[in-house]
Amino acid sequence: MDRTRRSRTATGVNSVEVLEAKLHAIYQQSLIFMGILDLDGRLLDANQLAYDVCGVHPEEVIGKRFWDTDWWRGSKHSQACIKKAVASAARGEVYRADLHYTRATGGEYVVDFVMSPVRSSTGKVLFLAPLGMDITERKRAEAELARLNSHLEKRSAQRTAELIESQARLQAVTSSIHDGLVITDLDDVIQDINPRMQTLLGYSREEVLGKRVYELFLPLGESAKIREQNR
Asked: What does the alpha-carbon distance between residue 102 and residue 121 come to, in Å, rounded to a whole number?
């Protein structure tokens, strides 16, 4: 009986060790920045990726308030947000924000940052778990897309203004012509007529726009025949 009990105990210990080894491997090899803080925001541990990206050794940052560590030294705003994140997670809330952080190589980078509470089986908050995924390239792509959209909108507004100006100049020219003038498209649909032509035809501009030219100059019956032929 004792031998069986010892065998079961050993099997249970081995299972726990295997599980811990798997979790440790996931933690250290993850492509996401991961860490553990106490409830006051002091760093207890971080995965290797987080250390490597910042170019620090664990002993240089463990025990420090998370907002005072090298990851956030380049942004006062990010440091303030980390303080808020710690306070929120300690209350049992999840905090999320896009934050700027510093790498060993320098430059400005952005992380999709989440701070979550780690609870016991009774629901008590034991630790805080910061997670982060670098989204710098995505943010750059979004900024470039916004820049291009803004440029296109400005170009569109400029072209619209130019078109309105051109139409106004054309209207001024046609209005000054003493002869009757009809402007049509390639299908002989009237696009505009000048005031002199309105006088000659006895129609207002609004009455003739969109009509075909022959509808104005042929008798009603002939106009209907031509319209039928063109269908």
From this structure: 36
The full set of domain ranges for the chain reads 31-134, 136-173, 177-231
Judge whether residue 24 has pLDDT over 70.
no
Q: Which three-class secondary structure state does DSSP give residue 144? A: helix
Residues 6+ apart with CB under 8 A from 108: 74, 100, 136
For residue 77, pLDDT beyond 90? yes
Q: What would the pLDDT profile of 160-185 be if each residue is shown by its tens digit?
A: 887 888 777 777 777 777 777 788 88
pTM: 0.58
Nearest by Cα to 111 from 57, 42, 25, 35? 35
Q: Is the domain defined by 31-134 classed in CATH 3.30.450.20?
A: yes
